[in-house]
Specification:
heterodimer, A: mainly alpha, 0% strand, flat, B: alpha/beta, 5-stranded mixed β-sheet, 46% helix
């Protein structure tokens, strides 16, 4: 039961991280530099969440770390592209 | 072709049971292509602003009409276009570009009222609204009306006169279309607005020179003052490709593509109960959906 609950809790935490970051992004909508910072923060938090989640699942391999880092980098590039266009 | 599509979009033994579109080398290629897209857009915009630029159509006459329309709807008197207030707005815009600030007061502590007084308008009450990077006149006025503090200025019953300046320049390293709106009321007869003169609709501003900050202006004669203000009565740019629209289209299509590939990949792996070493697709989908939502909230136009 506990083993099944942990991944669910992890995803609840992820949902909270993502929704709070989007709310923060909206709060600083008049400041491009702050929006970029929030975008970077969102990506860093996501990569950190991924590391912790996979470490808890027991499948944290270098390949997984690289994947999360690349996903984070893609998101930052997209955010910079739109915010500074 | 079928093999390529299967290899690229579906988990299969040829791609180690992970869609090739989600492999690290391909993801690195996405980042490289996005960076290349950014640099090439900036380069083309600098070299050929008439092809790739910021579509803008903001006119003084439209701003005046829309502002007065909002006041009329609330049963308030219409504001009259005042040259002295327009000159004050122009001087304020000029000062913002010259000193590189986005604020009601300059870094040297100069307030909007100093521009009003130095333009010869002796006010009993005055106000200022600022906007930058909107693409059209109605967008500016709608945004002001949606902001309680800016709306207060527009619908303040005590104001009788209004002035505008619409200027293109570079502010904090960013190409900016600035709109300054000055309100005022005065007891003096000579500053009370006469019937507004028809103002030029402006010219298409597409050359790089138009993007530079406006030059310092010293009113040597009423004619030069008038011609200076006429030059700041509109900003109209019609590039073939509008940068914000094109950028958004490309980014959202790419995000849609990524989310679709993740859904397909996750579905096939779950259906065939494939065990593999990879990131969590559901987490990636949630993350990209959050990024998509955040990017939908990005607006180019800003008020102050």
């Amino acid at each position: 039961m506990k083993r099944k609950l942990i991944p669910v809790l992890n995803f609840v935490v992820l949902a909270i991280i993502l929704s709070s970051s989007v709310f923060l992004f909206w709060q600083v909508r008049d400041n491009k530099a702050m929006q970029t910072m929030v975008g970077i923060l969102l990506s860093v938090l996501y990569v950190t969440w991924g590391m912790i989640h996979h470490a808890m699942q027991g499948d944290l391999y270098p390949k997984v770390v690289v994947e999360y880092l690349l996903v984070g980098c893609i998101a930052i590039t997209l955010i910079v592209t739109i915010v500074w266009s | 072709m079928y093999r390529f599509l299967r290899h690229f979009f579906f988990p299969h033994h040829t791609n180690n049971h992970r869609a090739k579109a989600l492999h690290p080398d391909i993801m690195l290629a996405y980042i490289f292509l996005l960076a290349l897209f950014n640099f090439s857009f900036r380069y083309i915009h600098q070299q050929y602003p008439s092809i790739l630029g910021y579509a803008t159509d903001i006119r003084l006459g439209e701003l005046l009409n829309l502002t007065n329309q909002k006041r009329t709807e609330l049963g308030l008197s219409q504001l009259k276009l005042n040259e002295k207030l327009s000159l004050a707005a122009a001087k304020k815009a000029q000062d913002m570009f010259a000193n590189n600030y986005w604020s009601h007061s300059s870094p040297q502590g100069k307030t909007p009222w100093e521009f009003v007084v130095s333009s010869g308008y002796e006010y009993t009450m005055a106000g200022e609204n600022l906007a930058k990077n909107f693409s059209n006149s109605s967008g500016v006025v709608d945004a002001w009306m949606a902001s309680p503090t800016h709306k207060d200025n527009i619908i303040k019953p005590g104001y009788r006169d209004i002035g505008f300046a619409i200027v293109n320049g570079v502010l904090n390293g960013e190409e900016t279309t600035l709109v300054v709106q000055m309100f005022g009321a005065s007891d003096r007869e000579d500053v009370i607005a006469s019937k507004p003169e028809p103002l030029s609709l402006g010219t298409t501003t597409q050359s790089p020179i138009d993007q530079l900050p406006i030059q310092l202006f010293e009113a040597s004669s009423p004619e030069s003052s008038k011609s200076f203000m006429h030059s700041l009565s509109s900003v109209i740019q019609t590039p073939r490709i509008n940068i914000p629209t094109a950028t958004r289209d490309i980014v959202f299509v790419f995000l849609g593509f990524l989310i679709a590939v993740l859904i397909i990949d996750g579905f096939v792996v779950s259906k065939h109960k494939i065990i593999r070493v990879a990131g969590h697709n559901l987490a990636h989908i949630m993350f990209f959906a959050a990024v998509c939502l955040a990017l939908m909230l990005v607006k180019r136009g800003v008020l102050l």
